[in-house]
Amino acid sequence: MSFYEHADMLAEGGMLRRLGPVFARFVTSLAPLGSPAAGNALALACLLLSELEGRGHSCLQLSALADDPSAMLGWSEDDWPGLCAEAGPLPQGAAAWHAYLQDCPQVLAWPGGADSGQPLVLAGGRLYLRRYWSDENTVADAVRARTSDSEGEPKRGRTPFSLEKGVRPLFGSPSPALVRHWLDRLFTHATREGGADWQKIACAVATRGGLAVITGGPGTGKTYTVARLLALLFAVEGERAGQLRVALAAPTGKAAARLKQAIDDALEKLSDSLEGALPLRELAERMGGARTLHSLLGARPDTRAFRHNAGNQLDVDVLIVDEASMVHLEMMAALLDALPDGARLVLLGDKDQLASVEAGSVLGDLCFDAQAGGYGAATAAFVEAASGQVIPPEFLGNAGALAQQTVMLRQSRRFGGPIGQLAQAVNNGDAEAARAVLRAGRDGQVAWNEAAQQEDMLRLAAEGYRPFLQLLRQGAAAQEHDAWAASVLQAFEGFRLLCAVREGEWGVSGLNESIAQRLEEQGLLKRRGEWYVGRPVMITRNDYATGVYNGDIGLVLPDPERPASLRVYFSDGGQVRSVLATRLRHVETAFAMTVHKSQGSEFSHTVLVLPREASSVLARELVYTGITRARQRFTLLTPNPGVLPEAIRRRTERTSGLRSLLA
Ligand SMILES: Nc1ncnc2c1ncn2[C@@H]1O[C@H](COP(=O)(O)OP(=O)(O)OP(=O)(O)O)[C@@H](O)[C@H]1O
């Protein structure tokens, strides 16, 4: 068998994505490489690079190419050596691979090589598809520029936002004394254990520089903090507060709606507690809604390019992006490109959650030092002057500029109970502690069915979805249709079944059909063809014409105008929006959904279903993300209890060059 026949066979068998061999053939065909064996070595690198890109890595470490990447790919021991044997003689060791690749005309060796638009780039011991190399550099350059002053004194003498239209805005820093004055008024609660108030510290740090990263687990007060940060930014502007252009955004519509709602509520409460000292209600109204990043940047049909870019930047002074762990590398690069130099960017997210579905692990990379802190003397002095907080000595150090602008919130307000303990144990990789919390099943907040059968899952699903389906069957009656639709959508958020995998007995595809069947048997659902009232659907592809995006979840409800047709209703901020069902082409049923797709959402009762067999996708971040989707109750179903400790021990590492570019 030839090398390519072998690669095709692996692609047929689902071990490689089909794009891999096509991409390898294309790249090697671009220029002759002396001998077929020389071409096969490049083709092998392309196959692995393409495979890793499909799995979310932004590049390939040459050391992985030189070693046996079977474990990384979830392959058995013989598979990789078998493919290598067909390729012929290969470079031995990372240095030999480097020497070989840098001589390939298809590869730009950076720095130093002549750039002729080669499809691959070799930089820092990593092989990239050009697009990701360029995106990583865009992100790293922008982050460096936005944090360049944060190790030293804050910038002075600059106006915090544009005073007139047409003037390029420049950010600056209000005086530490002014910041402190307002922080003391805005934060009136004491910290729980009397330690440093990281929320105040986060606000202080965010008033200097063009970037602040605020990370923390669920319920640590990221939204609480950012609402106060906004109030602070308005306050220090005094009379000019009304001119501050603030944009709120998140990767999904659901997350954007939650952000807006939480900020509006917080500003309203603050407005009362400040007894009118700041016109926060009016300012919140002026801010407008929160948007998805796609919509903020101006996504256009049939192109990856956005309407807003370096040549046509966003009209904002402050941009707050929530659920930043879901933002992939390409999107982050596009966002930073489109952001004016003078605007402040505040990224909020949980660094320990699953990384984005698409390539990159940007928030994780940016938060590399967050746990340890590593704050320098200048930051500590600034924080003390601007917030009255003393950074505890264990968090002092000499980490880089980005670390000075990164704050981790460390105290969960919502998750003091068993759900929080479980999430913490999983995050610490402590399988024993996780098992103990689950087995204790305290207060009915956590439960674990260790040897679950399909029947257990179906019973839970029928119980969990009953309230929303009953509300749905009562119909709109006296209520206005949209208000009724909103209440049905809200009731649907009460319960969700999350799966680790798509395929197989315990995967999303099979479970959705079995759940729908069970609900039908119990008279809760009437299915007629593909579209039926009560069908929850998830959008699987962005559709700019109808304004729905990958990951959006809606419910099929009757059309109030035309009783014979059905519409899909989506939550949109405090409102609902609907699209004619037949206009949506890329959807799937969503009684059960993957943990990946559940990011950015929370449900009162979340059930996490793990498959019988462990696999490389079943890792700590996935279990942690599943648990932290639960607001009040969490149930774990495992057909085989042994997969839980294995999953907790395994970490998902994404290969990326961003960390070393920022070091
Ligand atoms: N310093 C504080 N004092 C009093 N209550 C607080 C404080 N910080 C947060 N809270 C409350 O704790 C709860 C969780 O806060 P918040 O929603 O801001 O957390 P979060 O980190 O944004 O959570 P998630 O990631 O799950 O959205 C909220 O009810 C909030 O009002």
Automatic annotation (TrEMBL):
Catalytic activity field: ATP + H2O = ADP + phosphate + H(+)
Transmembrane stretches, start-end: none
One of the record's GO molecular function terms: 5'-3' DNA helicase activity
The enzyme's E.C. designation: 5.6.2.3
GO process terms (BP): double-strand break repair via homologous recombination
Enzyme class, UniProt record, top EC level: isomerase
Recorded GO CC terms: exodeoxyribonuclease V complex
Pfam families: AAA_19, RecD_N, SH3_13, UvrD_C_2
InterPro entries for this protein: AAA+_ATPase (IPR003593), Coronavir_polyprotein_1ab (IPR050534), P-loop_NTPase (IPR027417), RecD (IPR006344), RecD2_SH13 (IPR041451), RecD_N (IPR049550), RecD_N_sf (IPR041851), UvrD-like_helicase_C (IPR027785)
Subunit structure: Heterotrimer of RecB, RecC and RecD. All subunits contribute to DNA-binding.
Family from the record: Belongs to the RecD family.
Function: A helicase/nuclease that prepares dsDNA breaks (DSB) for recombinational DNA repair. Binds to DSBs and unwinds DNA via a highly rapid and processive ATP-dependent bidirectional helicase activity. Unwinds dsDNA until it encounters a Chi (crossover hotspot instigator) sequence from the 3' direction. Cuts ssDNA a few nucleotides 3' to the Chi site. The properties and activities of the enzyme are changed at Chi. The Chi-altered holoenzyme produces a long 3'-ssDNA overhang and facilitates RecA-binding to the ssDNA for homologous DNA recombination and repair.
Protein name: RecBCD enzyme subunit RecD
Organism the protein comes from: Massilia eburnea
